[in-house]
Amino acid sequence: MKPGDKLFDNINGAIRKCKVGVAVFSPRYCESYFCLHELALMMESRKKVIPIFCDIKPSQLRAVDNGKCAMEDIRRFNWALEEAKYTVGLTFDSLKGNWSDVVTSASDNVIKTLIEMEGEKADAAP
Hints:
The protein is α/β, with parallel strands linked by helices and 126 residues long. Helix content is 51%, strand content 13%. It has 4 helices and 3 strands, in the order H-E-H-E-H-E-H. It has helices spanning 7-17, 33-44, 71-85, 99-124; strands spanning 20-25, 48-54, 90-92. Helix 2 (33-44) packs across helix 3. The longest helix has 26 residues, at 99-124.
């Protein structure tokens, strides 16, 4: 992106074009409108999402109404978070783990998913 580009237009377009999404959940993830918006868009677009739970348990994820978002957005965000909670993901404890191992594992999962998608596409071709 370059100066003057509309942030949401670029992000939304990229999410709609992607095949796989990775969401890195942290203790402050749910405080970010942008993170929640991107997650909701990935889930609404039925993208395969690989969650990484970094220093947080899935059960701790919830969007809180801080008065800055419309109630419809809060409902949308909580729905997307519920979807993510029940998706098999990776976990990372920053006190015990090696971040590069998690990144490698996530990358391997994305590549495997893309290869599987291509195989399914080839199998479906006439």
